[in-house]
Fold this sequence. Notes:
The complex is a heterodimer. By secondary structure, chain A is mainly alpha-helical.
Amino acid sequence: MNKIKTIFKGKFLFIFGPFFLLWLLRYIVPNYTISSKTPHWAYIPPKSCLGGCGSIDGFIPFVDWTNALIQFLRKYEIFGLFTFRDFTRGIANYVDKFLDFTEAVLHKGFPSYEIGPLPWIFIITLTVILGFYLRGWRLALLGGTCFAYLILFSKRGIWELSMKSLAAISVSAPLAALIGLCLGILAVKRKKFANFLWPMLNILQSLPHFSYLILVVIFVGIGTKAGVIATVIFAFPPMARLTILGLQNISQEIKEAGVMAGCTKWQMLFKVEIPAARSPIMLGINQVIMQCLAMIVIAAFIGQPGLGHDLLIRLQGLRLGEAFEIGVAVVLIAITLDRYSQALALKEPERREGNFVKRNPYLCATFFAIIICSILVFLFPFFNEYPKELTVSASVYLDNAIKSFTRSLFVPLGIFRDWMLIYFLMPLKAVFQSMPWTGVILFVGAIGWKLGKMRLALTVMLFVFFIASSGYWVRAMITLYMVFASLVICALIGIPLGIWASKKESRTKLVLNICDILQTFPSFIYLLPAIMLFQISDVSAIFAIVIYSSIPMIRYTVFGLRNVPQQIIEASITSGCTERQLLWKVKMPLAFPEIILGANQTLMFALFMVMIAGFIGTVDLSQEIFRALSFSDGGKGLIIGLCVAFIGLTADRLLVEWSNQMKKKLGFIN
Amino acid sequence: MDDQIKISCSNIWKLYGENPEKFLKENNNNPSTEQLKSNKYIPAVRDASIDVKTGEILVIMGLSGSGKSTLLRCMSKLIQPTDGQVFFEGKDLLKASDKELIEIRRHKMGMVFQHFALLPHRTVLQNVAFPLEVQGIEPIKREDRAKEVIKLVGLEGREKYYPRELSGGQQQRVGLARSLAVEPDVWFLDEPFSALDPLIRKEMQNEFLRLQNMLKKTIVFITHDFDEAIRLADRIAIMYEGLIVQVGTPEELITKPATDYVAEFTKDIPRSKLLNAESVMNNEDKKLYDNTVNYKEKIEKIASKVLKSEGSYSVIDENKKVIGSLSKKEIIKALFAENKNE
């Protein structure tokens, strides 16, 4: 912990001084009360605006400007021929063509040729063979189980819904991967483009989904194609990022080997660089698929049919048993796709010698499986269309189980919820709401400056200023309060759990595996238990946020503790450290930079989840975004989105820089 | 230009820092160490001039950070030098277009890397055939050629293996094969055996000498291992902080080190293995004694018989002409003295 002290030695007053002073002043300023109608300008950003506009609260009318721009893009005809909106809708129509095809294959069939959709037996068999090829029988079992569940439990049409969702994913994922790959390559080859792309990716990845949904509605419309386009926009950034990282991390020697062999630029790219960066690029594809799945539910807000849409309706109707059944389907699909694409990323080419069948066993297996399945489908209608009579549904039992469960826990959970609200959340909320915006700007600026970067200080101050001037300061502070409360709880749970897990190899494995599985769940799923246990309140929102965002906290703590060099541990043990001393005097200080990074990730996750929790009625920025979504107010949605993004980016810049500086001091990086 | 000279480098500079070209010009193309330091430039190569003769093994030797790898990369223009000239077979490499460079690399140069730099997604055969593939040579032809080279380096039967299935030594054999697939005139080897275990390293050095005996390439070989250098080299160039300190045959380096730095390097080398009669003989005494030794004989071989006999030995050249003499005194001096001038 000494490291932390040295960074802040004698700087505490400098950093916190002005902030606290302003805060305290608020209570000293005469005539000021919390309910006062004309708060002092230094505490709450003034409402008058520069442009002389009336509709917006902020003193800089960003929302109006954005809406004017959107209006311009909708109406202005480029070369007098078409508007920007015509252009985007044109692209959307192309997307629709692909979508028609995948939908026909998976669930609609080709009525004009009298061909039905792909029978379920094909889908299960091919999934199993692919699983065997990619990793072995365990993966095959997972894939088989997943689709077996979908077909077995499709009393309420889970199979069809899943196929609809998969049809959308099988268009959006390749599209997003391709866009990400191209942008990534371009960024590596053209330095200037990279300078432009990185900040764009940062902002795109920290914007809440709902803010681009509004823009997609304006420029594309609603329905499946709009959902696909929203998904693509959301899913391509990690691909671009991993492509850039992958290409940059190719060893210099391999590139030189390519040059010395006399490769042209294109040969370098396709024969040397992309294959050498194969694994990170494939991990990018894995990320893209996971993002697409996360969007299943979110895209349902703009009318994309599928699992997400039905899940949403059931959640809104509080039909938790049915929602649970669909939730399990979503989770199973998510885990299956995640494991399959991960296996693909890590797949090494294998040496097989012998005759054709021996060299290509899976190709042959696929061939025979197709023949056998075709015969089965031809002979028995059972294999073509799974009979409805044989499907099951557990939703009634689940409903009852959930009801009796919550009923039995109603009293203790109620007490817990009220206690949390009264003694923790409400006071914290009041504290955050009373924070003066000028003080916050000074505060982040001071931290930035103390971390030694004038530029960093100015950037984060600008971010906070943007939030303050946009007119959503109070809402933003409520968001921040939710995030902060969750962060505290996550740290209280995550760090001890991480310490516990890092003690033994077997525990580490177990905990990291659970983290892996939890991380593949689409975020909306976490609202299910939250609503079940705590109904609709800040507590349920924070509960959902905490389970979702403790994952990085645990993960990074384990990582940090386990990565303490073995030599140092041995040296400490031989110096006579007890177990406890070893942990607190050696391991924790060395793992601290990683734990900070974990906190940073947790914060990002929490911010992301707060936005989704707006669905169950919180009063922060997310609610404003939902409102903007229902009014199709693109400017408002985007500006609030930027506010959220800037909260995230401010914390991210400061925490990452802090962690890096500590790592430098510890000599972990240069 | 001399036919005997394959690559000629003159006054090569490679500086890292801001706008190094301008800085170099302002300092008359010859900034001092202090000037470089005070202006925060990192000199990788400083004013290096060296010729590589056709058919020789030139070893560039130096510790890490001495600029040897950078100099090699300037020769193949993998790195653009800040200043200076590189002529390859009389052609100015630094003025060559991208197209010309690709042609030269495709047909005249081969390079072996310290960490092998094999493409992990390709089999041994595909790796070796890679330089032929990018030239657009048809599959059957290039695979035949690749198989030939794989046989040459002793990896027959492993054609279908992937690099990760091979040991370090085997991987470097693939690296050697790949660099030889196009039958290059010049063979660049960048610390090819440094990443290998000592025993394997020895084996690979023998393999290298065997290949060179067959192929007679012009070779530029980088190493930080002086033992390796004297084992393989016709000539050695020693680099220190970007400067070429001395170029010479192994004997010259040991008997006439140009600086203390070179002397420090050569000090621990078993001199008897390296020095020959000519380099230690007494030049003044040209009498013909009963016993004679050839001037090229290594001291290691003749030391015991000279030390056992009472009189001196005459040193004769290939025309049986006496060019000097060896007595116990010279042998003892050669074996134990720091260098000849002491």
